[in-house]
Amino acid sequence: CALLETQGKSVIKLSRLRYVKASFEKGPIVLTTSYFTEDKSFLLEQDYEKVSMTSVLNENGFHREYLEKELTAIILGARESRLMGVADGSLGMQVDTISRDDKGNVVEITRSLFPMSRNQFVLKFKV
């Protein structure tokens, strides 16, 4: 991932298909690819069907305090469509996230692809 690579660190890449139990048979609701610096290699030893990434990060002293998200409407490519069980060229939402700790250090960079046929986004703001 470019941001981590520019900091001169090796990168760990983890991809996960995520489901909702109540509608498991419909297919995954998101394909998430996360990038971490090599000091988080403990993440490679986990079974994410049993533990959450957040809990593993927290247990190892890495806490997400600030999130920066960018949402972009996209057309899903052939690979992503096949992995998520939707028609090639389906509408999707791409959400890119940079997670930082309380000192502003990058904890994680994530790209999540959501098929719109299985997702709805509601944004709430306090003004």
Secondary structure: elements and pairs:
Blueprint: H1 2-6, E1 11-18, E2 30-37, H2 53-59, E3 66-75, H3 78-84, E4 91-100, E5 106-115
Antiparallel strand pairs: 1-2, 2-5, 3-4, 4-5
What report would you give on this structure?
- Helices cover 15% and strands 36% of the residues.
- It starts with a helix and ends in a 12-residue tail after the last strand.
- It is an alpha+beta fold.
- It is built from three helices and five strands; from the N terminus they run H-E-E-H-E-H-E-E.
- It has a five-stranded antiparallel beta sheet.
- The chain is globular.
- The chain has helices at residues 2-6, 53-59, 78-84, and strands at 11-18, 30-37, 66-75, 91-100, 106-115.
- A hairpin with a 5-residue loop joins strand 4 (91-100) and strand 5.
- The longest helix is centred in the middle third of the chain and has 7 residues, at 53-59.
Rg result: 16 Å
Largest sheet: 5 strands, antiparallel
Based on secondary structure, the structural category is alpha+beta
How many strands appear in the DSSP assignment? Answer: 5
Shape: globular
Output the strand order for the largest sheet: 1-2-5-4-3
Give the helix proportion (percent range): 10-25%
State which percent range the strand residues make up.
35-45%
Cα end-to-end separation: 34 Å
Mean pLDDT: 91
Order of helices and strands: HEEHEHEE
Give start-end ranges of low-pLDDT stretches. Answer: none
**SS summary, helix count:** 3
